[in-house]
Amino acid sequence: MKVLALETANEQCSVSVIDDTQELFFQLDARAKAQTQTILPMIEQGLNDLGLAVSDLTAIAFSRGPGSFSGVRINAAVTQALAWSNDLPVIPVSTLQALAQAAYRLHGLTAVTAVLDARMNEVYVASYQLDAQGIMQAVDEEQLLSYEQGAEAVKFTVVGSGANLVQETASEYKNVSATAQDIAVIARAAAKTENWVSAELALPVYLRDNAWKKIPEQGKA
């Protein structure tokens, strides 16, 4: 098994390649909103370093949102293009689940409420607990909520960019952010059971139906 994992939904860009047991390649570009320029060169570098072609991969995993509208769109488009042209399955991973997985990887937290700043005085929220395989699994639905509603939805330790928007004192883990490493760990578990979809279903999830109308208001490109 070799899985390519992509993360651009958080305004950063990272790429990981894993096999059944280990990470083979990881690169992160932390510059904000540079995904369009960096994602393809990073993929190319990772595959070249490993002596692989895209067609050698088992699947491609990507953060399907919710998150930055342009970042989610880039991730889905690149994944779909690569998977379609090489007849590969895809593994869509929730950005909130990846955030929860990052909280476990970085801080050992086994139960979290993942909260991302959605702008427009709203947050993306979902809660997760660690399963026996070391994967953070959802215990409720992903939601787009006001700050007040988000505060009511908190079940566990709050992590992510929206943490102190729903709990003023929740600043300890507000800088936790997912990377392709977290997408890859979740995708590995999915790939082992062939829990994937075809390329045409590599679709973004925005939660906000009219996200495109709100980009200028969000100050996002």
UniProtKB/TrEMBL annotation:
Residue ranges of every copy of the Gcp-like domain listed in the record: 33-177
Domain of life: Bacteria
Gene Ontology annotations of biological process type: tRNA threonylcarbamoyladenosine modification
GO cellular component, one term: cytosol
UniProt signal peptide: none
InterPro entries in the record: ATPase_NBD, Gcp-like_dom, T6A_TsaB
Keywords, sorted A to Z: Transferase
GO molecular function: transferase activity
Family: Belongs to the KAE1 / TsaD family. TsaB subfamily.
Name of the protein in question: tRNA threonylcarbamoyladenosine biosynthesis protein TsaB
Organism: Acinetobacter variabilis
Taxonomic path: Bacteria, Pseudomonadati, Pseudomonadota, Gammaproteobacteria, Moraxellales
